[in-house]
Structure prediction request, 126 residues.
Amino acid sequence: MYSNPLEAYKTVEKITISGRETEARVLSQAALKLKDCRDNWHAEDRDEKLDEALKYTQRIWSIFQGELSKHDNPLPRQLKLNLLQLSSFIDKRIFETMSYPSPEKLTAVININANIAAGLRGSPSD
Prediction:
């Protein structure tokens, strides 16, 4: 069995967590990573943390784009189109921020990630 109770919990959590909750968690994590960068813009390790946060966010939205583009995706067509447009905005903002970093550019992506995560959980965002 498991010698570490935390590992046992993590294993059970992976098995029982819903897709919506997984999506909400990764979006929340992305928002937190970006917020940390924005709030600590002058930190010595900002470039590394910013790169990690932007790439993490980019991976999440790339996965969403792939899923939304699948023929058998069950979401309503208009919702898929809206989310794809939103993902296009996020892609552009990520590339802008990579090219010309500034903390203000992170706010919109932070808010989008946090609000979608809250919606997936069925609760209002902070």
